């Protein structure tokens, strides 16, 4: 049993060693293998390294190889690749530094004990050299991943931070990663390095798959750089280095894209920065950053709650409140009816409390809050007071208010149908003033209808505000299909491609999941108008777009005529809206069938 039965021609072959039945002999052989591998120049070394890579990915918490010296071995192999270019170019050794850094990152992503062993094994200096770009962007990607894991733990962060250039390198990489990958790989197919292509596709794909994977890896390179920076951002002493204006202004636009939607990316780093008073001061002073956070807070982005956190903290901080309140208040007011979002369990109540305290603190100071913002906050506070009063109001009185609101709403529908869009918007406003605050479904309809009016009146900001209010009132939150579509159009008017794209995709998802046969996608076919908007925004929000425009190349087009066709205009959307109001005037459909034939404007009352 102790003898290895193998026809393998390579003495000391790692795979043969792993077949050893005697545990003690196997450990001794693996230990010897790890010690001797960096000094050997035999062919075929990439095979055991790729095997170790698979093992590390599959069993990152297994301590066996950690105890036998895998970190020391991987560190030495990276150094060998950096210092001995002849060896690196021989056989398939070019793959080895990538696999070695990846193995280090896999074994350190969950266990602080493993991370401590890695630091003692000396992995940080060679990883930093890869981070510098001593080889290529492919090795930078796995190096920043591994360093990000090491920086996560309190016991190993100081060892990373001791290399003072790590933070600056990570900031540079986060800012330039998309351009690097585009210009060094994506742009010129005939110049792509063979081993890059093999690593991207595992030898299973052609040019198209290489390009898709390159976009995914570029996004990971940026997001993992942001993750590393985020570890530094928790330490106040590093905030001044992180919060440089030219970097901070870019953060809201750094997102994982559709290929890496699980990463909070730039908004996640901004949230960490805003947890600190020094960080909030920088964010409040950088033009455009707060406005971008407001856009994210209103959007259907998975990380919406992180932007909301930033806005709330900025308003709660007396040193930044007066700088941001006029920008932030309209967004928070739009979100004041939301219930649960992220970790928040009564977000709307939190927003009302924060704005109310802000008003109280500014009572004795002039010029802190504009008169318009004060009026908007006062209106919000009155609406919340009305909601409290409605709880003790007789049902008959509530029914009277509902009936009065319905009459006014139908008048608005009539005006809309006749082409008097401004008049219809006014009637919807009157109906909202009459409609009980607790009648959420009805208020969703009214806000969404008024958002459509604002769209046709070319008032996208007002449309976004009303659509957002409808989405916050809806249950579940951010899932009212028509409001998603209207807000997608409004974002498109403002050139906010990412926000428009996310809403358009959610709109299609809501249609596909609807139980209403008239709302659901017929034969699983996406409506042409939605497909055109999604395609347009995917080009405009494409991760490589800026790099392509800078360096020249593919996918640089994407104006409105290209996205919607040479003969296309907004007539489809307008026609659908006009027919909505015409049918709605009958007042027969309940709120659950508001989308008959993709054209019915939402009705106000449910059937009794």
UniProtKB/TrEMBL annotation:
Where does the ARM repeat N-terminal plant domain lie? 6-244
Annotated spans, Disordered: 559-608
* Record field: compositional bias (Basic and acidic residues): 583-608
Q: Where is the composition biased (Acidic residues)?
A: 567-582
Gene3D superfamilies reported for this sequence: Leucine-rich Repeat Variant, Tetratricopeptide repeat domain
**Matches recorded under InterPro entries:** ARM-like, ARM-type_fold, ARM_7, TPR-like_helical_dom_sf
Among Pfam families, the record links this protein to: ARM_7
Per its record, how is this protein called by name?
Answer: ARM repeat N-terminal plant domain-containing protein
To which species is this protein native? Answer: Urochloa decumbens
């Amino acid at each position: 049993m102790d003898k290895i039965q193998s026809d393998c021609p390579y003495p000391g072959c790692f795979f043969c060693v792993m077949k050893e039945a005697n545990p003690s002999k196997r450990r001794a052989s693996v230990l010897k293998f790890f010690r001797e591998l960096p000094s050997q120049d035999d062919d075929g070394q990439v095979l055991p390294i790729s095997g170790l890579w698979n093992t590390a990915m599959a069993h990152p918490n297994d301590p066996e190889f950690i105890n036998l010296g895998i970190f020391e071995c991987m560190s030495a192999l990276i150094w060998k690749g950096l210092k001995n270019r002849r060896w690196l170019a021989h056989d398939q050794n070019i793959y080895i530094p990538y696999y070695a850094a990846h193995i280090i990152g896999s074994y350190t992503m969950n266990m602080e004990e493993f991370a401590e062993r890695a630091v003692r094994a000396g992995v940080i200096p060679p990883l930093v050299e890869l981070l510098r770009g001593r080889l290529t962007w492919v090795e930078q990607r796995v190096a920043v991943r591994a360093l990000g894991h090491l920086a996560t733990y309190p016991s190993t962060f100081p060892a990373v931070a001791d290399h003072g250039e790590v933070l600056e390198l990570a900031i540079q990489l986060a800012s330039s990663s998309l351009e690097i990958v585009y210009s060094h790989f994506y742009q010129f197919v005939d110049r792509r390095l063979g081993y890059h292509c093999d690593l991207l596709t595992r030898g299973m794909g052609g040019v198209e798959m290489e390009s898709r994977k390159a976009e995914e890896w570029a996004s990971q390179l940026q997001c993992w750089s942001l993750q590393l920076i985020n570890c530094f951002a928790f330490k106040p002493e590093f905030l001044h280095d992180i919060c440089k204006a030219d970097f901070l202004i870019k953060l809201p636009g750094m997102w994982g894209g559709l290929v890496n939607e699980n990463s909070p990316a730039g908004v996640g780093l901004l949230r960490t920065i805003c947890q600190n008073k020094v960080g909030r001061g920088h964010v409040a002073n950088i033009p455009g950053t707060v406005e971008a956070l407001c856009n994210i807070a209103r959007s259907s982005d998975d990380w919406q709650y992180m932007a909301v956190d930033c806005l709330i903290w900025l308003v709660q901080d007396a040193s930044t409140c007066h700088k941001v309140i006029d920008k932030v208040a309209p967004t928070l007011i739009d979100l004041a009816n939301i219930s649960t979002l992220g970790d928040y369990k009564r977000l709307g109540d939190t927003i009302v409390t924060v704005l109310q305290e802000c008003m109280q603190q500014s009572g004795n100071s002039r010029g802190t809050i504009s008169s318009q913002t004060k009026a908007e906050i006062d209106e919000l506070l009155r609406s919340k007071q009305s909601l409290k009063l409605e709880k003790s109001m007789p049902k008959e009185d509530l029914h009277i208010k509902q009936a009065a609101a319905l009459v006014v709403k139908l008048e608005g529908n009539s005006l809309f149908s006749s082409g008097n869009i401004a008049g219809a918007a006014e009637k919807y406003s009157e109906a909202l003033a009459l409609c009980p605050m607790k009648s959420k479904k009805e208020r969703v309809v009214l806000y969404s209808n008024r958002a459509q009016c604002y769209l046709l009146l070319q008032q996208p900001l007002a449309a976004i505000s009303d659509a957002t209010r409808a989405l916050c009132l809806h249950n579940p939150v951010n899932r009212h299909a028509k409001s998603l579509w209207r807000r997608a159009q409004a974002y498109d008017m403002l050139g906010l491609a990412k926000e428009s794209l996310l809403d358009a995709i959610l709109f299609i998802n809501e249609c596909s999941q609807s139980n209403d046969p008239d709302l659901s996608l017929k034969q699983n076919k996406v409506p042409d108008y939605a497909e055109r908007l999604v395609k347009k925004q995917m080009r405009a929000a494409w991760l490589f777009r800026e790099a392509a425009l800078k360096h020249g190349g593919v996918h640089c087009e994407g104006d409105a005529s290209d996205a919607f066709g040479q003969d296309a205009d907004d007539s489809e959307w307008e026609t659908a809206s006009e027919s909505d109001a015409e049918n709605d005037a009958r007042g027969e459909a309940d709120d659950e069938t508001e989308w008959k034939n993709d054209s019915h404007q939402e009705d106000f009352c449910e059937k009794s």
